[in-house]
User: Fold these one by one.
Assistant:
Number 1:
Amino acid sequence: MTAPNSPLRGRKLGDRRVVVDRPHSAYFRYAGAGVMIAKAAASAPTTAFGRRLARVRAFIFGKPLSSAQEIEERLSKKLALPIFSSDAISSSAYATDEILRVLVLAGLAWMTWSIAVAAAIALMLTIVAFSYRQVCRGYPSGGGAYVVARENLGPNFGLIAAAALMVDYVMTVAVSSASALANLATAFEAIAPYKVELGALVIVLVTAANLRGVRESGNIFAIPTYLFVGMALLAVGVGLVNTATGAAHHLSPPPFAEQPGVQAFTMLLLLKAFAGGSVALTGVEAIANGVPAFKPPEAKNAANTLIIMALLLGTIFIGLTFVGLQYGVMATTPQGPTVLGQVGSAVFGGGFLFILLQISAALILFLACNTSFNAFPRLAAILANDDCMPRQFAFRGDRLAFSWGIVVLAAVAIGMLYAFNASVDALIPLYSVGVFICFTLSQAGMVVHWRKERSSGWAWRSMVNGCGAILTGVVFVVVASEKFFNGAWMVLIFIPSLIAMMMFIRHQYASSARQLTMRPGAAVPQPHRHNRVVIPISGVDRAVVQALNVARSITTDIRAVYVSDDPHHSDSIRDLWTQAVPDVPLVLVESPYRALIAPVVAYLDVLDRSWPNEQEKPITFVLIPEYVARSWWERMLYNQAAKRLRAALLGRPHTVVINVPYRRDDARPPAAPEEQPAGTLVAADNGRPH
Amino acid sequence: MPEANTPVFRRAVIALSGSAIDAGIVRLALEVTRHTHAELIAVHVVELDWTQPLDADVAERSEEAQRVLDAAEGIAELMHGKLESVLVQARDVGAAIVDEAAAREADLLILGLPYRTRFGGDFAIGRAVPYALKNAPCAVWVVREPMGEESR
């Protein structure tokens, strides 16, 4: 209790009141009987350095948000669309190129099939989007394919889906930043030697934006996404009008055009074109992973956003493919213009709108990685809650973002950039393999879901998802076999390795939980083991006295240990000790080999061995007196032996190590001898700080 | 009421009694002073009878008393407003509230009034509200909670 304030006089004679202090109110707020909520001040740093660091963090990442503000951080559909769709929508910028690049192998005459392939992919997009829409509604806690597979196919299938998705998210970040840098390097050759460093810088900037919180990152990234959507739809619209009015004419072949091949037009080639164009589907699953990020009603908003995204993606993709066909655009090598570029140049005539379209395409390709920065941490958090990832991944940072997931994703993606020297050609075969595994598992999971649920329309719904599972499964096989020798084999190693890691973590958590779990309903009995205290000392000083006083509050079985390499000094310590603390035995250990820590540990071993075998081992409290340094440089001067001793005793059975800090502020002027109460210890102040 | 006639307050004291109406008057005060950035002071008075000294260690140890003010602070935080909280021990609640408002030179005092009836059905206004209405040097707003279904 704080000292009562003196009564204040009121306006009328005799009226008095006392203003009562509320010492807790600066740091806590009572929320219910016995429940306190910590305020921001309770988490604020107390040191000057900590405060400065907090100011820097607040400047870079923004002020910390409380958990109650989580609802304000939720995303509206308008903001969620660019956050979760930049990856999917950006793929419409290059998916048509992937189809044409395969079809051209059979000659120009077969290019007209591009529209049929695009239509088939759009059909698959519809099935996948329909399926994920159901996932949003059926599994509103998020997790997407992982949760669907876990719930319907079993936990191990869930882990396969999760691992595949995680690998793909990492690759999305690495590939999008590498390809954006590659595009920039074609315009500004000077940056080519620094592609890796600049790619890493881009990732760090996107990481920082995401650490500012989901809503703020949405505000940052919304404009480029909407700009691209607007420009691409405008290009498609103008192209369609031109086609309808007969103004669309075939263009002359662009520079670096792929040379038409003479391969036979087979089903396999068509399948390869289908698989190539299926990259348009990457990122579609992100919304189903992040349902809880939406404003209420979360599931409905997420499902509607998913449909809007699928409509936009499908329209831009089919539209570009159709308009491109009318203008006779061709696939080019990576040095040549893209299909989007050719269409833009044809419909806008190379003016301001064309430049705006190209800039918006470059920006959205740059920001495609942002979808991964939202989906990966959420997936990792769900996995952490299921004990398949370290639990830190489920913690939200100052800005309510899953900081661990964001930082780890950035670190791994930067590592990939360095490992592959930011080469798009080397990275691309690793990309979009995992996502088809997760599509297949999620579709298959939904088939089981419908069959279990048997709600109205379950038969046709399960049939649609069954077709989706087969289609996406085929695409996975084609993509994986196509890219296998180009590097996809690495993905097929990463995924099982990740699964093994998650299974190991799950096993570890399960095993520790088994050891820690109390029997339900069991009352905790009084402790019955003997306690003893050992105090390693380096002299007789106030810190030791403080440790002794703590020891006396634990037990009466106390002994001090002094390890010395100087017999003369030992004698003086013994004299001092006997005089100051006659009732506590001091064990002097002479150490002719000058070791300080090992003899203490050996002494504890001897104590243990001398304990009767038929009795339960006692708990040995090792109280280490520590002098608390005031500043960072003082810390280097003191407590080094104490730190080593603590490290040596870490994990020792039946042993509890306690640091007893002694602060200079704890020092009181010693009372005159006649005033000292009986039993008070006063140490001679001639010991060395430890 | 025309905009020009809307009173502007610099400092308002909100008297909290720990009843259900507290949340409503805190929200009202925050709304009224949102644009004027007036200072808001929430006061809760713990009444001590004459068996205890006025400076007895009662309110500080009372989690319930602290909770009344903490709940108000919580509402202010949610509404992005600022609110100072003051816990007072006194012999008479009405006098303490008025004295606190006067000492802080408040120009508005807001009190909540739970709808209670005496035995027999008469409305019970209590002692604090009439005292404040009669003695407070500033404007006084009394917000009575709605009647319960059974009272209508």
Number 2:
Amino acid sequence: MSHLASANTSSAPLPQTPSTRFQTPRRLFSSLEGVFNDEVFFLILSVFIGIFSGLAVVCFRLAIDWMHLALLGPLPQTHSWRLFAVPSLTGLVVAVLVLRVFPGIRGSGVNQTKAALYIFNGFIPFRTAIGKFICAALAIGSGQSLGPEDPALQIGASIASALGRQLQISREKLRLMAPVGAAAGLAAAFNAPISAVLFVIEEVIGRWSAGILGSVVLSAVSSVVIVRWFLGSEPLFRIPVTTFKRPTELIAYAFLGIVGGLASVAFAKSIGYLRPRLKALPRWTQYFQPALAGLLVGLIAFLGFPQIMGAGYDSMDQAMHGQYAWKILAILAVLKILATTVSFVSGTPGGMFAPTLFIGAMLGGAVGDLERIFFPHLTGSTGTYVLVGMGVLFAGFLRVPMTSVFMVLEVSGNYEIIVPVIVANTFSYLISRSLQPVPLFDMLTRQDGLILPSLEEDREETILRVEDAMLPVPATILNAQEYVDANARRIQDSPDSTFLVRMHPSGWNIISRDQLQRLFQEGKGELTLSSVLSAQSLPSLYPDLPLDSALRYVNDYPLVPVVNRANFRQLEGVISRDSVFKKYGSGRAIEVTSPN
Amino acid sequence: MSWTFPKLVSRSAPVILLILTLAAAIAFAAVSHLVSRFTADQQARGRTLYAQGLADAGASRYDDAIAAFRAALTCDPTNSQYQLSLARALRDSNDPRRLDEAESYLVALWQRSPQDAAVNLALARVAAHRGSIEDATRYYHNAMYGVWNSDPDSSRSKARIELIQFLLKKGAPDKAESELMALATALPPDPASHLQAAQLFAQAGDYAGTLAQDREVLALDPANLSALAGAGESAYRSGNYATAQRYLQAAVNANPEDANSRQLLATSDLILRTNPFHSHISDAERNRRITTAFAQAGDRLTECAQQRGINLNTTPSPLSSLQSRWTAAKPDLARLRSPGETDLPDTIMDIVFQIENQTADTCGPPQGIDLALLLISQKREAASQ
């Protein structure tokens, strides 16, 4: 804890000159410096990151709207040449910018932020923010089937990183700047601070601690405040009446989860298949890939489905209010998967959040309407299924189960549907996990040749615990209140060389056969064991602790007692250095022999 | 790069924060300027699109209107007028799938401003489209007692009239009638309003109310043809034939081409001439009318039986039974002049009325005196006044 009172302010008082009128601010500063330790400073910095990210995202959203108006016009047009000409030509411009001016802004930006955290010590060039801003606004505004959330996340992270570098903060803190900025950017783009915080914790950082959580929350909240200040607090969707009356209807939502899980796998696999193949094509083709993607998206729109262009929030809103028949909803879901896949794999900068929500919404509405045809007694409205569908794709495709639940709740503001959301998301997540073991973001990182920690794998990894390496309770346990000679007699028939000693009134100690025999030979047989042993107790462990926690003791003590949490005098077993390393050895063997 | 965060912070954290605050303030001001300019542009664009939407809606091009209103809303998402207009266009497009969305917009507007009469009226119309009497009544009432931006009295009356029309359409005349009562007490002294109220009373089957409203019209405009004819018809329908005769006569005099009034007048005359229960006739006249009615009923019975191929003497049927009763009662006619036979006129006329009702059921609506007798039987109470 660095407490301040720095020498140059306290030890060098200002001379009493006419300029002493400046003494007051200086004194104020020097007294304020006492308030700021590095943790407090980082928290305050998080608020500023939120403010700057929020302002940037406001401009980003205006830029997208402006581009859309300028390029496609205010009124939706069907069968207009603009629908395919604009995304194609804009695709060419974006490709040139990405390949020539702003390298490293391809894709969504989530991976780049994660890479900044784990590989580049929190470094994201500020140029990335500028490039992402311009190119994503151009691409999304011209109708490419991508969303603004992930770019906003990267813009936030980039601003935070640049700010951290300017302030020369520590390497440890600088690493955290990127996720803090990412949370701010995502929260501002999504107008949903809880989901943004959860996503960053769940997908980018992967761990909870008070310091990180505080910074992430502060930045997310301050960015949302800024966005709401400028753009209003209107939600992304007008939420219809959502109902969940009969528990039996959970079967219908589970079915939606299954369909959503399968769709997620199809979506992820199509991206995973096409992306490396397009990247492997000659470099000159990359100038045309975004244009071709734009042409395909535009043709789909030209042929009667302009809803798939851009983020598609308006269409989601309409789907939520039952504006489309189930066949149209199903077609839109399929076409959006196709359009987003080609837009994304072509290297056009843009995000996956909004398309994921779109596909989920359409799929949810289609499944819900179809189910009601066969089971007219189902009471869930189309809007309810659309909302649940959004969460289903989020859980299955982006593989963020916690975020997916809270996202639906935060967007809908309705806790009545929490049970259907959890049920459907669980099915979707499990199906996606079983059919597509590597999550999307991890797959993209590996395709880019980076090895980042897979947070889902970390979550799902089987942790070795103390109980796994625990040896049975030794047959001979010595009592500290008994005499040395009595204890020496007790160990005569034991094959062990080291013995645990139960201390009074609590605690454990340890003594070796040699030590005990030496005490006996030294004529200390009539002393109690407690009087000759060190007063310092042996550390003890609990069976459920990670085995890693045993490592710090097993080198110093030949035996470490493992005790019951409810009754620490009750011995559950012991661990030794050999038992721990044997367990790690067997774990490695399993890891090595298990394929993939 | 030197990683000297603690030193830097301890030396200059307040300065850094001050600089950041200044930078944030400058950025905030710049973004404010940008947003306000963009918003102004968007609002101007929104107004153009809104005007286009209104023109489309006015020409019943609802799909175009919806697209224009939606686009206007993307320019100015919080504009209540745009939302209201979009909701109205969605509702009026006659696509049931769009009612949900219309309602969603309107409910959001209602939550913001529950006293807004226009929003409540729009919600009432959505509920009316759905056929929900309860919701529609609630929202229409909210609209009536809500805040109107212009011409509140007339708007409230119109809202109530709309509710009444909806209730009548949904087959809830009792509820409509109670609304009509309330409407009648608050109508302005304007013949057109009273005339409309009279029509609504007539649709609700409340002919007394209709007559009262037509009388209000005639008080304001004594030569109003619709009111004369309407008052005559409502009096006729309620069995008040003397009053009907007076109004219908005036209506026919004023407009000789009014065939309906002429026909109703003829029937009214006939009823007034044949009704034996009329209070202002002598005993002799009553006996004459009973005798005439009895003979007419016998003829009607015979004609109807012939028409249906029923032999009244051999084939058992309701008509045969009535023929037997008619034949049995015929000798009683002679006793009508006896002073002690106070129940006899009713007994004889009961047979007459039963014959007229039964023959109407069997052989269809009668004409002339038979029709008069049938109507007297149906409105005996009123006709005898």
